[in-house]
Prior knowledge:
6-stranded parallel sheet, 17% strand, alpha/beta, single chain, binds ligand FNR
Amino acid sequence: xxxxxxxxxxxxxxxxxxxxxxxxxxxxxxxxxxxxxxxxxxxxxxxxxxxxxxxxxxxxxxxxxxxxxxxxxxxxxxxxxxxxxxxxxxxxxxxxxxxxxxxxxxxxxxxxxxxxxxxxxxxxxxxxxxxxxxxxxxxxxxxxxxxxxxxxxxxxxxxxxxxxxxxxxxxxxxxxxxxxxxxxxxxxxxxxxxxx
Length: 196
Ligand code: FNR
């Protein structure tokens, strides 16, 4: 179903990918989410925020309350967003280092994640990333992110037929439909959280 009520102002979503691999399937999920949003989730805009330029977390790099330029830029983009869409693989049953690093930088005072709505999608090996999703939710408790609980969304990259092409593009229509439902839930929850 298309959304008939278009929220004003438009909800801005910062999309963060836990994989920095060129053909990342998780970045493919974000590309697909951007397309779906443009086509059929009116009133919401998704922007991919690249975490790869961030240095490894090190508080020695904070000088007189200032962060390195790449960190400042990242923090400003998170701050300007109404909500967050995380797309991440699972590494050894948890969140991968590029994602944890980004979360840690943006959590330094003042914590720019606070009070934002968030959704998690994942593409990974056997588990589809569900264990990493749970760890991310746990981290969210401390940084004051508010995650939607449902619909749950995870893709097992090994399952046939393949849901992604060799460049990491999502090609499966049913998975795209499920992704759209996540985006609609995130939109509704963001509006609720903001009292709109
Ligand atoms: C993995 N992978 C993985 N998968 C899984 O389901 N559970 C896991 O614990 C792990 N652990 C793990 C550790 C390390 C170091 C790597 C490199 C990989 C597989 C991984 O989630 C899978 O390859 C994803 O598809 C990678 O996501 P992108 O890069 O395609 O977005």
